[in-house]
Design a protein that fits this description.
By secondary structure, this protein is of the alpha/beta class. The protein contains 24 helices and 37 strands. Strand 17, helix 8 and strand 18 form a beta-alpha-beta unit. Helix 15 packs parallel to helix 16 and helix 19 packs across helix 20. It starts with a helix and ends with a strand. 47% of the residues are buried. The N terminus is likely disordered.
Length: 831
């Protein structure tokens, strides 16, 4: 059978630098490698083939190669090490010992450096030679230059110049060689094909050699490879090589056999790597432990925050984790540990519930273990296949209530009064500072919102757990439900002690393997080029000017217009970004900053689809930032609307007088005290402030009408500061459909025309920085550099105190912010 025909019958192979087999007297060839190509190589052996590919290694890798040339009684051993740093700097080193081959024994050592990434990288390699048997070889050294370009998923290009300086003289001279390679992956990452043309300086084109390589993965952990090379003139020898590779997570073993003429060459390679490779299947898949409390804990820490580094928003990070876990074929089950939902309201709880349902729909089994949950946490757990509670679990399944904190009495005691200009009886943000109790308008809004929350919660849980009517009300009557009571009521499937968890996980996924360090997509990515991305731009916290930031104690978070606008501009200009999702979890803030975000969204959607995703709250300025998107998604329990503005100014004179402080003003203007915080407004100042607010409100509802394709009068009727649930907002045309962050990503993908089979990455743009982040840019370079030095630490403030600081601090921040505000009328806590 002709070798070419034999090659065509192999289902999955990989070809090596087979042309090396026919150059036994060239010391620059080094040791023979298993089938590969300068266009395909992505391991530490790249130093020998194409130094530019060192940028593709990932974290540390070591490869040992042993060669046995039977025909010439030649032996070779090679050791290659390499790693990629900072995502674009590749470093490599090698030592090769070669004996026999009809020439003196020698050692070939090398160092390599590359700069770049998958789309384009450049590299240089330096080799020096030592031989105790041949002084000419002992004096040689040479340079190699390489280029690697992998601009798209199916294409890889390489260009290598070996022995650039053509060192040596006479028979020990190393010829300069040119090597051009093209690699293709016509059927995804499982099959790689390459063709290479190599010619030496001074040779005519028909004196060069052609090489062909095929690499394929039969199934996980098993790959075959083959290589073929030949000259372009008749009578030249043909070289053929075949190989097989077995992979474990961090260990790979390859055997390759081949040769030319009557020669036979054996190659054995062992690879050790820090990164995981797709390995031979073991058992029934992985079982992961997902601790929601740990995942949702902020990891910035005081020192890291002050230095300017802030970890990604923990909730967005968790959602990305869940999205990747859903698509991980190795994951068979999840043990969901629930001990609170830090920083999450009912909107996020619904998103988490939907994410758990997606895990189950993808074939994963989910077991929820309850340690300490309230109603929101229980709603998330209800999406699991089974729910188990620890014997002493704290189950606060006691129904919902809404709490609003008023500081009016405190202000009265301090002698502080407030000047207010607002539009609409429902825009009662100032009432948190001016009243001691709820107004009728506020009470109406809170009751309507709470009714929606209760209806959705009870309907969802009863359906998931198949509970009869009235069963949840029985739990409410207990206040704190014991684990045994929860089992009797059907709220959980049973009670277990921690020692039984392994057994339950084994029952959940028979043959599964528990992976305590599970991370989705933690295996080495063999993909060429960069995936297209969905950019997620967060608008989280109170809206203000400047950069996004957060304080070290976690009491407040600011969504800065400068950061959000810049992130949207980056996303719209990046050709690798297919679409944009604006993730809003904000009760609003400064009108000007909200308007800047709104206009940046309008500009971005001229270039790419923009979808808004609402979290727990997207009200007032938060709605302002969302409404320009192509489509708005919210949970039924999202608190949204509150379309309105107000102007709030303190009069601190009474407090000052109590403290013995006296202030006088000399003026040359008719309305000097409009923005001063000492005395109350005069009637003329009140009129001017109200005119300012009326104008801002008219702009707001006009923009809503235009963006949402509604009549302005209809917008005005449902605006005036009225807060709506996501369910009510959808009924009024303020949002388009129900869904969480991952649903918004799916809508963005669809609007961008991305095929369902194409993998996309989620990229966060515009994260909050620390107090000093501006010292190093956006985000702080100083903080990024210290990321590896300072391990993440949770906030030192207890969660309950942190919630209180956020509630009271938010009101104070709104009160002291100058200018017209588009902010949530009050802080509503639903428990």
């Amino acid at each position: 059978m002709r070798p070419a025909l034999l090659l065509s019958l192999l289902p999955s192979l990989a070809l090596a630098q087979t042309s090396e087999l026919v150059r036994p007297n060239d010391p620059s060839r080094g040791i023979t490698l298993p089938p590969t190509s300068p266009a395909l190589v992505d391991e530490a052996t790249a130093l020998s083939l194409n130094p530019a590919a060192l940028s593709t290694l990932g974290s540390g890798q070591l490869v040992y190669v042993h060669e046995r040339d039977v025909a010439r009684d030649g032996l070779g051993d090679g050791l290659f090490v390499g790693s990629t740093f900072f995502g674009s700097l590749g470093l490599g080193a090698s030592v090769e010992w070669l004996r026999g081959r009809e020439m003196a024994s020698y050692r070939r050592s090398g160092l390599g450096l590359s700069l770049g990434a998958e789309p384009l990288s450049l590299g240089v390699g330096y080799h020096w030679y030592a031989s105790g048997e041949n002084s000419r070889v002992d004096a040689l050294s040479s340079w190699d230059l390489g280029l690697s370009a992998r601009p798209w998923r199916p294409l890889s290009l390489s260009f290598v110049v070996r022995n650039v300086d053509a060192p040596g003289t006479g028979p020990a001279k190393l010829p300069r060689e040119w090597d051009l390679g093209v690699g293709v992956r016509p059927f995804g990452e499982r099959y790689s094909l390459a063709a290479d043309y190599r010619v030496a300086s001074g040779q005519s084109l028909n004196q060069g050699r052609l090489g062909y390589t095929l690499q394929a993965q039969l199934f996980r952990g098993v790959g075959l490879s083959a290589g073929l090379s030949h000259g372009l003139r008749s009578g030249e020898e043909l070289a053929l090589q075949f190989g097989v590779t077995l992979d474990a997570a961090h260990l790979g073993l390859t055997y390759a056999g081949g040769g030319y003429g009557e020669g036979l060459d054996h190659v054995l390679a062992v690879r050790l790597s820090r990164e995981k490779y797709a390995s031979l299947p073991t058992g029934g898949g992985k079982v992961a432990l997902l601790d929601l409390d740990d995942r949702l804990a902020s990891s910035s820490g005081v020192v890291r925050s002050v230095l300017g580094w802030s970890a990604p928003d923990p909730y967005l990070r968790l959602m990305r984790f869940l999205d990747e876990a859903t698509r991980d074929p190795q994951l068979a089950g999840v043990v969901l540990k629930i001990e609170g939902l830090r920083g999450s309201g009912w909107g996020k709880a619904e998103e988490l519930r939907q994410a758990v349902l997606r895990l189950r729909a993808s074939g994963k089994r989910v077991l929820a273990v309850l340690l300490s949950v309230d109603d929101a946490g229980y709603m998330v757990a209800s999406a699991a296949d089974e729910i188990w509670a620890l014997p002493a679990a704290n189950l606060r399944i006691n129904g919902l209530s809404a709490t609003v904190t008023h500081l009016g009495g405190t202000m009265e005691k301090l002698g502080v009064s407030w000047d207010v200009a607002r539009v609409g009886e429902f825009k009662n943000a100032p009432e948190q500072l001016t009243r001691k109790d709820m107004s009728e308008a506020q009470r109406e809004t809170v009751n309507a919102y709470l009714d929606t929350e209760v209806r959705h919660y009870e309907r969802t849980v009863a359906a998931a757990r198949k509970l009869p009517p009235g069963r949840l009300q029985q739990a409410y009557a207990s206040g704190l439900v014991t684990a045994r009571q929860a089992k009797e009521l059907g709220l959980v499937d049973g009670v277990l002690v921690p020692e039984e968890l392994d057994r339950k996980a084994a029952e959940l996924v028979p043959g599964g393997r528990f992976d305590p360090d599970y991370a989705p997509r933690d295996e080495r990515d063999r993909r060429w080029g960069s995936r297209r991305r969905i950019a997620i731009v967060p608008v989280i916290g109170a809206i203000a000017g400047g950069k996004s930031r957060e304080d070290p104690l976690g009491a407040s978070r600011i969504a800065g217009a400068e950061t959000v606008v810049r992130a949207l501009q980056r996303a719209q200009e990046d050709p690798g970004v297919a679409a944009i999702v604006v993730r809003v979890d904000s009760g609003g803030g400064d009108v000007l900053a909200s308007d800047l975000m709104y206009r940046a969204v309008l500009e971005a959607k001229k270039h790419k689809p923009v979808v808004a995703s609402m979290g727990d709250v997207a009200a007032s300025g938060g709605y302002y930032a969302s409404m320009g998107a192509d489509e708005i998604l919210a949970s039924p329990t999202t608190l949204t609307g509150s379309i309105g503005v107000f102007f709030l100014k303190p009069a601190l004179g009474g407090l000052g007088e109590r403290l013995g402080v006296h202030q006088e003003t000399v003026t040359r203007a008719p309305l000097p005290g409009l923005l001063q915080g000492w005395r109350p407004w005069t009637p003329e100042e009140q009129h001017a402030a109200q005119a300012w607010v009326d104008s801002a409100y008219d702009d707001f509802i006009s923009n809503v009408a235009e963006s949402r394709h509604l009549q302005k009068a209809a917008v005005d009727a449902m605006a005036r500061g009225r807060v709506w649930s996501g369910e009510d907002a959808k009924a009024r045309g303020l949002v388009d459909r129900f869904g969480g962050l991952l649903d918004a990503v799916a809508v963005a993908r669809e609007r961008a025309g991305v095929p369902a089979a194409e993998e996309l990455d989620l990229q966060l743009l515009g994260e909050a920085g620390g107090l000093f982040s501006s010292l190093g840019g956006e985000p702080g370079v100083l903080g990024q550099a210290l990321n590896d030095v300072l391990p993440p630490q949770p906030s030192p403030v207890p969660p309950l105190l942190q919630d209180f600081l956020q509630e009271v601090g938010g009101a104070a921040g709104t009160a002291l912010a100058p200018g017209v505000q588009a902010a949530l009328p009050y802080s509503v806590v639903v428990q």
